[in-house]
Amino acid sequence: MDLNATLIGEMLSFAILIGFTVKFIWPNLTKAIEERQLKIADGLSAAERARAELKDADAKVADEIRKARQQASEIIDRAQQQANQILDKAKADAVAEIGRQKAVAQDEIASMAQRAREELRERIGALAVQGASKIVQREIDPAVHKALLDQLAAEI
Amino acid sequence: MASEPQGGLTEYIQHHLTFLQSSHDGGFWSIHIDSIAVSLILGVLAGGWLWLKSRRATAGVPGKGQAFVEIVLEFVDGQVKDVFHGDRRFLGPLALTVFLWVFLMNAMDLLPVDLLPFITQKLGISHFRSVPTADLSLTFAMSLTVLVLVIFYSFKAKGFGGYMHELFTAPFGRHPLLWIPNFALNMVELLSKPVSLAMRLFGNMYAGELVFMLIAGLFSAGSWLLFGMGVIGYTVWGLFHILIISIQAFIFMVLTIVYISMAHDHH
C-alpha cells in the first residue's frame, strides 16, 4: 500500500477531528480539572485559615485570662493597701484624740489646782489675819496691812 | 498483498478486515497478533500512567494529571456505588480497568483507518487491524472473564449448596419436575450475559470501522467532489464515534458491575 488519496483524506479528517477535540472537548475537560484543583486548594486554605484563627483565639483567651488574673491581684493589693491606710488613719486619729483629751484634762487639772491654790492662799491669808488679830488683841486694819498679808500669802 | 484502489472497494475492505495472524490456516493457533499487541500496549500505557499518578498522588492540591485521574476514578466509583452495595475493593478497580481499557481500545477507531496499516506496511507487515474491540476474540475474552467472575461470586455469596439450590429451584419453584426447566432457563440467562456483552461491543466497533472504510472508499473514487464529501463524512462519523466509543465503554463497565452485583443477590 502506497501513500494515496485514501490516507491523505483520512489524515485530513483526522486533523479536523483533532481540531474539534482541541477546541470543544479539551477546554471542558481542563475546566473541570481546574475547577477541581481550585476547589481543593480553597478547601485546604480554608482549613489552614481556620486552624490559624483557632490558634489566634486560643492565644487571645490565654492573654485575657492572664490579664484578668493580673487585674484581680492588683485589685486585691489596692484593697489591702486601702485597708491598711484606713487602719493607720484610725490609729493616728485615735492617738490624736487621746492627746487632745489628755491636754484638755491636764488644762482642767492645772486650772483647778490653780484655783484651789488661790482659794487656799486667800483662806490662809484670812486665817493668818484672824490669828494675828487674836494674838495682838486689836483690830488690824485689813486695808492698812493688805500688802503685808498678800506677801505672807504668796510665801505660803 | 497490497491494497490497490483500482481493485475496488470490496477488496479494500476485505484487506482491512484481515487480521495479522500468526498462521494463515485459520485454525485454533492462528492468533490475532495485531489485537493482542494493540490491546497489550494500551493496557500497559493506561496501567503505567495510573500507577505513576497514584505513586505521586498527594493529599494536597493535585496536579492536572492527578485531578483527571481522580475525576475518572470518582465517576467509576460512583457508578459502582449506585449499583453494588458492598465491599468495593475488588469491583471498583475491576470497573475502572474495564472502562479505561475498553475506552482506549475503542479510541483506536478514531485513528485514520489506514494510518497504522500504512505504517506496518512500511515495516513489512501486510495486514494490521488497529481496533482490538472490533475483534470478536478479544470482546469474548473479556466477557468470558466476566462470566468466570460471575460464577465465582455466585458460589462465594451463596455457597455451593445455595447456588445449586437457586439454579434448580428458581424461578419456577422447588417441585422436582421443574428442576430441569429451571436449570435450563438459568443456563440461558447465565450464558446470554457474556454473549450479549461481547457481541454488543464487537458489533458497535466493527460497524463503526466498516463505516469508516466505506467512507474512505470515497477518497480514492477519483473526483475532488467525492473527496470533499469523504472528508466531511469521515469527520462527521468520527465526531459521532467519539460518543459511541464512550458509551460502549460505559455500557461494558456498567453491565460488568450489574452482572457481578446480581451474582451477590439472593433470589
Helices and strands in order, then pairings?
The complex is a heterodimer of chains A (156) and B (267).
Chain A: H1 5-136, H2 146-155
Chain B: H1 9-16, H2 33-55, H3 64-83, H4 91-107, H5 115-122, H6 136-169, H7 179-219, H8 224-264
Structural class of chain B: mainly alpha
State the assembly state of the protein chains: heterodimer
Molecular shape of chain A: rod-shaped
Helix content of chain A: over 70%
Strand content of chain B: under 5%
Structure, described:
The complex is a heterodimer of chains A (156) and B (267). By secondary structure, chain A is an all-alpha fold. Helices cover 91% and strands 0% of the residues of chain A. The longest helix of chain A has 132 residues, at 5-136. The longest helix of chain B has 41 residues, at 179-219. Chain B has helices at 9-16, 33-55, 64-83, 91-107, 115-122, 136-169, 179-219, 224-264. In chain B, helix 3 (64-83) crosses helix 4 and helix 6 packs antiparallel against helix 7 (179-219). Chain B is mainly α and 267 residues long. The A-B interface holds A 1-14, 16-17, 20-21, 25, 29-30, 32-34, 36-37, 40-41, 44 and B 2-3, 5, 12, 60-62, 64, 67-68, 70-71, 110-115, 117-118, 121, 216, 218-220, 227, 230-231, 234-235, 238-239, 242.
What structural keywords apply?
heterodimer, A: 156 residues, rod-shaped, B: 72% helix, 0% strand
TL;DR of this structure?
The complex is a heterodimer of chains A (156) and B (267). By secondary structure, chain A is mostly helical. Chain A contains two helices and no strands.
